[in-house]
Amino acid sequence: MEQNQRTNGIGTDCVQAGYHPGNGEPREVPIYQSTTFKYDTSEDMGKLFDLQASGYFYSRLQNPTNDYVAAKIAALEGGTAAMLTASGQAANFLALFNLCEAGSHVVASSSIYGGTFNLLNVTMKKMGISCTFVSPDAAEEELDAAFQDNTRAMFGETIANPALTVLDISLFAKVAHAHVPLIVDNTFPTPVNCRPFEWGADIVTHSTTKYMDGHGAALGGAIVDSGRFDWMAHKDKFPGLTTPDESYHGIVYAEKFGREGAFITKATSQLMRDLGPMQSPQNAFYLNLGLESLHVRMPRHVENAQACAEFLEAQPEVTFVNYPGLPGNRYYERAKKYLPHGGCGVVTFELRGGRPAAEAFMKQLRLIAIETHVADARSCCLNPATSTHRQLTDEQLKEAGVPAGLIRLSCGLEDKEDLIRDLRQALDAAGRAMA
Ligand SMILES: *Cc1c(COP(=O)(O)O)cnc(C)c1O
Fold it and tell me: Is the pTM for the entire model greater than 0.90?
């Protein structure tokens, strides 16, 4: 589509898109550290409240710093509009809640981030919004059968955190489009490695906390609209977009802002107004610093992860390695299609010696730190059995597909030789624990 076409390369957009200073203006995106904005007349301000003019009045809804950075993310994804949110959780909630209300239903891949699974399975359920989870590997008929009359969105993750399943975006989009839009959480590959709109997704979300910021500095999220879903063609399903909003004097978002702008304008002017999970302009500034080098960093994360995965696969202390870039991986072919330049820096693997081996391994690491985080410059790892999943027994862990010896490794930007050396000496300790 015309409006989604890229003129510059992705690297140029990482560095320069979104903010274009005029003569004598700051070269770097300024931080508008202001909650409010000043006007000469009440009429000027009134037009903003009626959505008759665009401008700023209160930073819970919009702030110029955030808008510059959101515009860069829209350019990177090839979308028509974008907004920042306080976190990735807020991005996924607002994207879904912009389409759903009590009585609605969502179809979601079962292989998604734990926080999003909980959001759909527990918290949104309490709001009267139900969810059917489908396998990311389900066939077309099976996916289609999950839809109901009240389904309002389909949801999946390009590369799931931490299962590392790869979504068949084209298939999900094809099935979704008979009913509703497809929302794809593109956090792990980032638009440098995959742009879901090119494969048919309608809305993209991000936890910018991960690679986009990339330095573990600022929590944040983003929502991007492809501008392609025809809300008016599904008028009855999305009354929030296609019938008058009385809180803005009867504006119909899909009419006034068109396909390109309706979704993000509604999410900003209703959901940010009423719920308020706004990103601080200071965090947006940090996020932009991260975005300026995203295209340089992602290939290095991938290179390090590929090297560590290949190394681990050859070690006797390791029973299996899960990384879509390994030829034996279940998602290898799908990853080649959707992620030709590689996926992300996260690798999971299981130690043969189970819990004692995992404990010895973690204790022995020198460079790679123990953290409940992934996707920043410093390599880190986690043993779910002794941290995020520590309430479960070894039996329950096995059932959940998270065996006690499982390690999640997030490869940072260090030299791969040093990471491998650190892994090797920690594997020696794991080996001694088994003996
Ligand atoms: C981390 C993560 C989230 C949640 O993001 P926060 O910024 O921590 O709220 C959502 N989706 C995916 C895929 C993630 O990895």
Answer: yes
Whether 161 is in the pocket of ligand 1, judged by its Cβ within 6 Å, is: yes
Please provide the distance, in angstroms rounded to a whole number, between the alpha carbons at the two ends of the chain. Answer: 61
Mutate to test the pocket of ligand 1, among 194, 209, 344, 346 (most ligand atoms within 8 A of CB): 209
Cα 208 to ligand 1 centroid, rounded to whole Å: 8
Q: How far, in Å, from the CA of 88 to the mean position of ligand 1?
A: 5
pLDDT in tens, 135-173: 999 999 999 999 999 999 999 999 999 999 999 999 999
Would the CB of 205 count as within 6 Å of ligand 1? no
- Please check whether residue 304 is in contact with residue 418, taking contact to mean a CB–CB distance below 8 angstroms: no
209 close to ligand 1 (CB < 6 Angstrom): yes
Determine which residue's CA is closest to atom 5 belonging to ligand 1: 88
From the CB of 106, is ligand 1 less than 6 Å away? no
207 in contact with ligand 1, CB cutoff 6 A:
yes
- Condensed to tens digits (0 to 9), the pLDDT of residues 192-230 reads 999 999 999 999 999 999 999 999 999 999 999 999 999
